Hints:
The structure is a homodimer of 225-residue chains.
Chain A: E1 3-6, H1 15-32, H2 39-53, H3 60-69, H4 74-91, H5 98-107, E2 111-116, H6 120-129, E3 138-141, H7 142-145, H8 152-161, E4 169-173, H9 176-185, E5 189-193, H10 199-208, E6 213-215
Parallel strand pairs in A: 1-2, 1-4, 2-3, 4-5, 5-6
Helix pairs in contact in A: 1-2, 1-4, 2-3, 3-4
Amino acid sequence: MKVIFFDIDDTLLGTSNFAKVAREAAINMMVENGLPLSHSEAYNLLQEIIVEKGSNYNKHFNLLTERVYGKENPMLIALGMVSYHNVKFALLKPFAKTLDILIYLKSKGYRLAVISNGRTIKQWEKLVRLNLHNFFDEVITSEEVSIEKPNKGIFEESLKRMNTKAENSIMVGNKFDVDVLGGLNAGMDGILVNSNLSEDKLNEIRKNYPEVIIIDNISQLNEYL
Amino acid sequence: MKVIFFDIDDTLLGTSNFAKVAREAAINMMVENGLPLSHSEAYNLLQEIIVEKGSNYNKHFNLLTERVYGKENPMLIALGMVSYHNVKFALLKPFAKTLDILIYLKSKGYRLAVISNGRTIKQWEKLVRLNLHNFFDEVITSEEVSIEKPNKGIFEESLKRMNTKAENSIMVGNKFDVDVLGGLNAGMDGILVNSNLSEDKLNEIRKNYPEVIIIDNISQLNEYL
């Protein structure tokens, strides 16, 4: 029985989009309540902080107010966080075809698992909020195994957890270098979905890695699996 | 202009109640999804952990699964957390008369502030979600000043922040020893609301601290202020 490993963010569900809208909402609220910057200044500063600290850092708004005022402003931090979370949870949805395709893959007898760079509970929270968690036998996160994709170790640990071999497994993800190349290097097959890469870059991949399947959308998985 | 300092939890809004319901919901979800305990066993274990670690510890569910399985179960932790937060935010409301009485006190010219034992952002989050934050000039938390009620220091710092003196201020809270006695020791007046103390204990307070006003409900504040 083949195993399909999925990335989560922007593979099963669109997080880049809601993160942007949620950050805009948070900045709106903070500026309306007295943060002495224009909307775009504040948004740009937040983006800088996210680039600097990474998106898994959980004190972006604390740092934003600290940079503006010289110390934290708890009211604005709370206003930002509440707005961010309200919008995020309102918008958190799987891609339109994610559920269909997961049901299809289960009906074909595949075993499914997740390999995600991110915090364990945060990634589980997304799966649980969307009721996707029952499809997956294992969820392997970089936090849990202390190794990030594309390093081989996280893929090897995932194969072990699923009690399978690389030649019987496929890695599906939206990031070529992180998900697909990482999987290939561990001996898996690779499928690139929803990548947003330029046509030039895609052609380069087609030339150098002809074994990689490239699809626009997770709904096309049933053409290959 | 007199300053009135309020405690938050179970003074402005009822948190004991929603915490219980939210915990029950979380335990339900965890047991339904495989936690191998009865509902009451799991609930009691959670209560033990809360007593042991305090209610501000943010890994109660992690520890619960660790104690049951010998290691964390991220799916059950996420299911517990999501259920807890959904129920908590659905039930988070000020007491029926809180808003009326805050408007009344502002109309009488009082300045208002909050003194709370708890985490700064978590306490602000409650005020912000309920749109109560605009009533208060300052929110002083034990996390921020590293001193908890009933210690004098947090009251003194609060007086300083509000630029006022103890004799011009009143502390309003639901815990006699923590809020009211703490305020009295710092030289403030004290009002005990919503205390849930036995009639015997209340009579003892009436005898030993005749200057303390005791009311059942925050809505009765307008009889004294």
